[in-house]
Design a protein that fits this description.
This protein has about 130 residues and is mostly helical. About 70% of the residues lie in helices and about 5% in strands.
């Protein structure tokens, strides 16, 4: 079932790329804060893949996410699409490619090192 959902999402991302007329890199160059937003979403996706997401992680992500959106006004429409949606798709694709690149069982070290570090960076201090 999870594989089916992932497949549908991959198809949606591919369609979105086609429908919005090109690559996300066309959007990224002139938009301040774009790379920071993509990297932030990438971090939460990696922690999610590795099953390390906790309530503190989500709360920290939400705070940083809102701060970036407000600071750089990333809630606007560019090239017929919402920047936030573009960033989510880009980050998800980057995380999926990295996970897929690790091979069968190779993602365990990735989860142990990088995802654990990302989780700590995202967590809210109590």
């Amino acid at each position: 079932m999870a594989l089916k959902r992932r497949f549908v999402f991959v198809i949606w991302c591919g369609f979105s790329t086609f429908a919005f007329g090109g690559s996300w890199s066309d959007v990224s160059a002139p938009v301040p804060g774009w790379n920071a937003l993509v990297y932030l979403i990438y971090k939460v996706e990696v922690t999610n893949y590795c099953s390390l997401t906790e309530e503190k992680t989500i709360l920290g992500f939400q705070q940083k996410y809102k701060r970036l959106i407000e600071q750089y006004h990333l809630d606007r429409v560019v090239r017929g699409g919402n920047l936030i949606d573009f960033a989510r798709s880009e980050a998800w694709n980057l995380a999926y490619k990295e996970w897929d690149n690790r091979g069968l069982g190779g993602f365990r070290g990735w989860c142990k090192k990088e995802a654990s570090r990302y989780r700590l960076e995202l967590e809210v201090a109590e």
